[in-house]
Q: What sequence folds into this?
DNA sequence: GCACTGAGTGGTACCGGTAACATCCTGGTT
DNA sequence: AACCAGGATGTTACCGGTACCACTCAGTGC
């Protein structure tokens, strides 16, 4: 009190409470409360007096007090593994925008590692804060597993995957995305398509690999062993050096754009031209993908939409009170973006 | 009540309150409170009884109630413009990690646009939530300006810049970073260095430009007009096409890596080899920078450290109660990362 | 043996809102 | 004129913690 500096010499910005507003407006606390909650049962003139007092005092309602009585925090918790990464970051941004539109705030609890404990810790921290709902960005099986037995007292939505049938999932249709990417390469005439896969345990890695495999199988194409990276450009580069020396490789589908970036450089250094000798297609459509050498064909994921969808499903659950799990198809469609890194195979193996 | 599903049939995860714990442990509410707050004035045996009851009931303290009496939320608000972008995303992640280590949670309020209103709105939303402190990621003058007159009743920390002398700033030493990047190119023998600048009004753009200018001036090198982009690879590409046709251009410092990526492709398409004919150096060190063609020299910014520093300064302010603004040097050092995109100039203009 | 200390515990008021109910006041009916 | 409906407002009791003070009961010094 009076410690904060010169700013609270006059009231505004200080700690006016509802009682103060009531006094200034000449009404009761309860009437102030009604005005702030848009109750219709207030005379317009009274309402104006109250609003004037609110403005004069710079009054801001105390959310903690409101939460204590209503049991509603209007706050949503987000548990995420790598919030700085392109995908998760955009999902979180989508969540935050959508949340703020419906009057919710967002608390973010990042995890340092993939274990059981970090997930539980993050969830517990958020639940103590009394969030109304929880969104888990669980790109890895271990996370999804850990979410099964968290002290759940609020609705939960999972991005990418959940192992609990009661928890709705929102995710991009990654199987379909990789299937179409692979198909595209086969249509161009490639005998088969190699795969630069994501690390094991990651939902995205599994689904993209599954889509790739499905396309090959459907076309009756040979299925080469996928090379497993760790999502990084560095791993894409290292594995790319292996692929580059194999003359059978004419088309590669990388499980994400970063690995594709590393792959492009490995091919370049090995003197294998893209797309004339080798076609490459990535996944995600990171901003740089349009400006690699050559511009990278890829599968665009609408991460923002995933975030928005999470909020809309979650607030629907909060409003209805029911857990209407897994009704509608949760898959957000992806979009095949063809740039310059894909083309017809060199006219060596098969000819008319 | 009893609506949430089968999960609260047994108590755990349900809504046990402190009174329940007290009853089970055979003590008073107050003693439970003491145990949970690590008060030394509790007999070990009593403490264990209480902790057992807590575990048995799956009790989680209600943060709203605690906040109401203590006035402390242990929650920190972050106002940010483009949370999905590489820099801000990593700052936010650094903030979140550091915050959780000292027992704080983080609420994120993103802004859709740069105006005055969005900033005030975001701040107001957070202040209603009763945050103990506010961190603003204000990369643009307009944002810094808008922060001047927000209803401030908590300590504020600004990343990049603030116009209020009472608000401490945490930022990377971008002037120095660009100065050294430019110096490096001059040392290699380039007559001068061109600049691909960021858009006007952005603090980072101004500081990086300033560092570039300082290096040229100090070396007595001619100062070409900088080309102004918008941070995107697309703008780097467009402006790069202009630079590519100018035979005088032998070295370019781009204000960020994304523009540098676009520039690299423009140079490649124009047949100007990097670094044999043109040297390029970026800024930020995005993960892809090490795998462009050729690998991009750049200035590494430790965004995570910026976030951590924000928290340490903020919690220090919260603990001391004083606003010890701008004591220590707030600049986080950057690191020059030399890869393959920089080299000696072609031996055309000047000879020994 | 008595006052005294201090550790351990309990009782009560209160934080700032909202829910539920009580009360007041107006205008229209009969 | 008395009555009543219902709109506008006030009163009171909580929500679930913590601060503050009161109390009990050993062990200590005289």
A:
């Amino acid at each position: 009190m009076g410690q904060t500096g010169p700013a609270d010499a006059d009231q505004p910005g200080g700690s006016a409470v509802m009682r103060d507003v009531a006094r200034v407006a000449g009404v009761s606390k309860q009437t102030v409360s009604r005005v702030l909650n848009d109750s219709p049962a207030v005379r317009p003139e009274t309402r104006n007096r109250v609003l004037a007092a609110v403005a004069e005092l710079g009054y801001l309602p105390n959310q903690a007090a409101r939460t204590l009585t209503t049991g509603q925090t209007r706050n949503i918790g987000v548990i995420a593994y790598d919030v700085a990464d392109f995908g998760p970051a955009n999902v979180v941004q989508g969540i935050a925008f959508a949340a703020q539109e419906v009057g919710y705030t967002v608390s973010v609890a990042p995890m340092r590692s993939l274990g059981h404990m970090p997930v539980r810790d993050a969830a517990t921290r958020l639940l103590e804060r009394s969030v109304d709902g929880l969104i888990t960005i669980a790109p890895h099986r271990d996370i999804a597993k850990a979410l099964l037995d968290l002290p759940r007292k609020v609705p939960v939505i999972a991005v990418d995957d959940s192992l609990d049938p009661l928890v709705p999932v929102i995710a991009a249709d990654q199987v379909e995305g990789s299937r179409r990417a692979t198909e595209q390469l086969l249509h161009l005439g490639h005998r088969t398509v190699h795969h630069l896969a994501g690390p094991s345990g990651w939902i995205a890695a599994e689904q993209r690999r599954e889509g790739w495999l499905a396309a090959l199988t459907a076309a009756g194409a040979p299925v080469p062993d996928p090379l497993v990276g760790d999502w990084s450009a560095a791993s894409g580069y290292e594995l790319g050096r292996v692929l580059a020396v194999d003359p059978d490789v004419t088309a590669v589908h990388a499980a994400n754009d970063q690995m594709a970036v590393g792959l492009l450089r490995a091919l370049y250094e090995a003197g294998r031209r893209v797309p004339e000798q080798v076609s490459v297609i990535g996944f995600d459509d990171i901003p740089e993908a349009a400006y690699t050498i050559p511009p990278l064909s890829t599968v665009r994921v609408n991460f923002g939409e995933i975030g928005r969808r999470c909020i809309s499903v979650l607030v629907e659950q909060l409003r209805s009170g029911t857990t209407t799990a897994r009704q509608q198809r949760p898959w957000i469609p992806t979009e095949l973006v063809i740039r310059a890194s894909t083309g017809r195979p060199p006219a060596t193996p098969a000819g008319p």
Residues 27-31, 34, 41-43, 46, 65, 67-71 of chain A lie near DNA strand D (CB under 10 Å from a C1'). The longest strand of chain A covers residues 75-80. Chain A touches chain B through 70 residues (CB under 8 Å).
